[in-house]
Design brief:
3 copies of one chain form a homotrimer. The first copy, chain A, is an alpha/beta fold. Chain A is built from 19 helices and 9 strands. In chain A, the strands form 3 sheets. Chain A has a 4-stranded parallel β-sheet with strand order 4-5-8-9, covered by helices on one side. In chain A, helix 12 crosses helix 13. Chains A, B, C: It is an enzyme of class 5 (isomerase).
Chain lengths: 473, 473, 473
């Protein structure tokens, strides 16, 4: 195409344009750009690393699994079927992946200024060596280049893992998962470190449509009577131990709110019986999830798993889309979230325990300065996870730092989580986080609030030491 | 006056002072500065354009109708009577308009840094050619210059409309309005495009003190039995069709919350009977307004009117002022506003309808990144209106962009609304919006997140194409 | 130590690094840097100025009383006993103050980027003349230098007061305080102006564990029957008059919410009887506090005391810590706070009273643009206190200005409160506030929104005239 625009990754991207700040940011970034990637929380598929098979094509790799991307296209009138997104019943529209790619390329301007365009351009440029911008005119060139590359050995999952400089990556599995892929990876002799994390939501949320089935399978897998409260807790302890044996150093909990509870065993038993009966009210379901969080904290004291809470999302908000396409189709919407009252029962029991670590996330940025910073700046067990999901753009990362720094400092935060299933974008995402942290620090140095040697220490800590320490890696 | 300070409009105003960003912002602005004004939502008086009579004087034109201005003066102890603000009973204090103007001029420093000072200085400088700053010493010079100019043909409403480069402007009328002024404009042969918008609040809000009267007149005007649910809906359809025939392309709904409902016809009938009886509770009034929003969406699918919701204001908060001076006296205060649960009933019905457009506004900025961006970045029908009312200052416009860009991008927003009855300030307001959008884009370019040709496209889209597309103009 | 890093206070600290803005900020700051300190709200101990005794040592002066500092150390695993923080029973761990200081110095990096490090470095540099950075290697040098200096006459409280250029400082006392220290100061002939402020929370909050005792003592001190509603109100009037006679120009109210009420005398009497009986419910306690706020406003109209409300904190959130160490141990956490409905009862009565001043504070920054700016930009009695407590960092001060400027302007705000018991940090805190206001104004000038002469006026008003006017000093 004569009209193709050049694609470049500017070495100063994301740094402030003020020359003083930019020079400082450059120097700080030089110290962290090459550090290994520590990815303690994410959603890559362990099968990739177990089987090490080639990815199919550009569309299957970059478009179909990325709800950041197809969400935006859907918002501008592109039907999910036009992209070949799988439906709830497992079927898919008969769409040529190249045609789906063209639909995406035609509309790549919709992503201007969004983090998706930044990550994707990074992948296009650095992983696939593309040097023209994606648009209608270059769609086929892109599709062919990417799809061809994927067939080569250098683009197999393990080769990319090594090329990306990943020191350790955590996946996320349900207690029902046998962790076979992790076992295969460990047995393979491959040196890549892929660990799991314990995410028990399917057996914790009574409002999930598959909860009864999940509970039954939880009993089968563990051999415990999981329909009794004590057996249910024993089953969790058993699976947590198994997950830890497969490398897990953390549990993760995705709840609608951050509510915790501290019921007596007798109360918990009665509540659990109600939940198991399938007749719990929404309030009882909420109380049950709240109680389980406190039980998980108790278990963390024993087995040392770091605990993470990701609250505050209305899942599958679009009813029609959910009925047709199922979960995780870009229709999750954040909710106002409260932490101060919600966490009190758990903190009353474990807030001062030196062995306990609880990492908090939020989708409600109004809590950064009001609740989360002050909580993490006081309780020894509490740390703040990075700007999450809808807030992982450069602007969101700046807000996170500017709104938590005064009260939590840098050292009650834990560095970056990429939190992604978009494997190829992992270097891009860590690079963005490192650049923004360097930019934030450069501003502090330029305004004479910290010295540059201090900023260098902090930049390295945020990129490498803090995530390792927080997740006990 | 020897002491008079010069008044200038700097060509780089509102652009970042960083030289890199400023140069880019200048180039972007050059591409949009001269584009026609598209004003799809506002509150100018159609009588001005129908009758084309001269405005009376500086005070009547610039001070008395502008609640942004007299609100600030009132907050600093100036009685409304000292400004000649009309009272609820229609009377006015016997105040010399020149004296009121002096009171204002004496206190113009109170507006330092506010958008009002920016808009007013733009009007003073560009519309009236003033070159000294407004203060106590120049009050009379201002009053005389402005009042004299207003008597000349070039300052008649139609002449100003043309001078301002307005391509189309929408006013806002109640269903009870016969739209006579619009009819006069259309019949006059004047080429200015002035359209109406359908704002049915007076016949939708059972808590408005004049609701029973309004409902009765609604019946008289339409000939429908508006005290039956079906007749009431038919009356809306009829008036919407009439409004559309007078150019309307949108409806607008100013509600205390964004609640929507999806009652069965039987439930709606029972609720409506209660509302008509005058004995509805606050909860029932709220449910009724919620149900009407969903009915309006249903009608939009048929007649193509774009729907707007402006929720979240406590109207007439100052009881004493309301009793003495009535509505709209600068005592409206924003409220915390929820969208995710509130919109679900409406979105469950119409959220995936390709023919439907719903533009959302907010006075609660905490919803930008948490709720509105993610909603608009998913639902095909949803678009975000610009930073509104209390948030239309440069800082508010920056926050809007920085907090919605990651999730909604630029293309799920609709460009600018001036939303004003201050006719003379319309060019100033659009100029501010264009400058801020150019500044936002310049920062993205300077930090190498988008290329300048992309930024140019976006700037032009925001200033011109997006409002035309969103409002179907 | 060879490794000691230099400690410097850069003359341009906190100014934007953009050269245009920095030059303007410098010029503005030159106009305000030397203005006297007006400190209308704070928590210094009047005994210091009455007795004028030497402070004990570095740890007792700078570490033990500063919950900003030991909170952060506690959050990173330092037990309060290791710092010698007093326990609830009055005992203290037998910790060498030098050892506590070393514990702090070892971890001074935790404060990077926080306001505490900025204030402390200012104190170290300007008050004690230290020129190396605090860290493990310089801990002893710091401890010795500071402790030795404190034994000299120039470091006695009155000498520091004069050195700091304090024109007036307000302390905060309970109605039960006999104000003996203030009497001693007044009788001493010393020219330093130290006034009190009326903070009746202990006799207003039925949920405080010492409320019954406090109420009894309130009766003893005033000779009123404070267990009757009328006697209780008379007791307040009497103590307010006494406080005013000792210089008080304001009352202050720290409540969990901003709720106000306007009960009839008969209702209030019934409620008070319930409260006095010790059997009030949480809702009744809340209603009582709400009613007292309105009564305080009524008294302000008579005695002219300016009223302040500081709402929205969950006090003593950490149960274990509270039981062991008591109140005010850095475990107070902000809460979501509502103002629009909450203030209506009070404003309905007094909102338009020209003689009444009510200064509002918040720990919920989401209310700045949504509620507080619009309220203060309308009601003549309302003014906004500065960014408070968790939000008094440079970033918090910027947010305060950027989110209230559009609606409240500069002139519905009241300049700075240091709000501190850390006496030595008072110049540092005012300096930070002045620098940030100059930086905010410099940006407005650099972006051609106000002229530099206007910015100079505003800077001086914010630093000096507005606090004096607002607090009637």
């Amino acid at each position: 195409m004569n009209d193709a625009k050049p694609l470049a990754l500017h070495p100063d991207r994301l740094f402030p344009s003020d020359p003083t700040q930019r020079m400082i940011a450059r120097r700080l970034y030089l110290q962290v750009a090459g550090l290994p990637i520590v990815s303690p929380h994410g959603h890559t598929d362990p099968a990739w690393f177990a089987q090490d098979e080639a990815f199919a094509n550009a569309t299957e790799l970059l478009l179909v699994p990325d709800h950041y991307v197809f969400r935006m296209l859907y918002s501008q009138g592109v039907p999910l079927d036009a992209l070949g997104i799988p439906r709830a019943d497992g079927s898919r529209a008969a769409v040529d992946p190249r045609a789906a790619w063209r639909t995406f390329a035609d509309r790549f301007h919709l992503f201007r200024g969004t983090p998706s365009s930044m990550w994707l351009n990074h992948v296009f440029h650095d992983v696939f060596g593309l040097r023209v911008r994606l648009d209608a005119g270059t769609a086929d060139e892109y599709y062919d280049t990417i799809t061809a590359a994927l067939q080569t050995p250098q683009f197999r999952p393990r080769a990319l893992f090594e090329r990306f400089g990943i020191e350790v990556i955590a996946t996320t599995e349900s207690p029902l998962d046998p962790l076979d892929h992790h076992a295969v990876i460990r047995a393979s002799g491959w040196k890549g470190k892929v660990i799991t994390a314990y995410r028990p939501d399917p057996v914790v949320d009574p409002e999930h449509e598959q909860f009864p089935d999940a509970l039954r399978r939880f009993g089968e897998i563990t051999g415990e009577d999981v329909h009794s409260w004590e057996g249910y807790l024993r089953a969790h302890r058993q699976r947590r131990a198994f997950f830890a044996s497969m490398g897990a150093t953390s549990s993760d909990h995705g709840h609608p709110t951050c509510a915790t509870a501290d019921l007596s065993p007798a109360e918990a038993r009665v509540l659990f019986a109600k939940v198991v009966s399938g007749r719990s009210t929404p309030d009882e379901a909420e109380l049950f999830r709240a109680q389980v969080l406190t039980e998980m904290a108790a278990m963390s004291l024993d087995d040392g798993l770091v605990m993470q809470i990701h609250p505050g999302c209305y899942r599958n908000h679009n009813r029609g889309l959910f009925e047709r396409y199922g979960r995780d189709k870009g229709a999750d919407i954040p909710l106002r979230t409260e932490y101060v009252h919600a966490l009190k029962p758990l903190l009353d029991r474990f807030g001062n325990e030196p062995r306990f670590t609880l990492i908090l996330f939020t989708l409600d940025e109004s809590t950064y300065s009001r609740e989360l910073g002050p909580l993490a700046g006081h309780y020894p067990c509490l740390f703040l996870g990075p700007a999450w999901w809808f807030h992982d753009a450069p602007e969101g990362m700046w807000r996170f730092r500017e709104q938590t720094l005064a009260t939590a400092g840098f050292y009650n935060t834990i560095g970056f989580n990429d939190d992604t299933r978009a494997f190829l974008s992992i270097p891009a995402r860590h690079d963005v986080a490192r650049r923004i942290d360097c930019a934030v620090l450069a501003k502090l140095v330029a305004e004479h609030r910290i010295d540059e040697d201090e900023a260098t220490d902090v930049a390295i800590d945020l990129a490498y030491h803090l995530p390792k320490r927080a997740y006990r890696l």
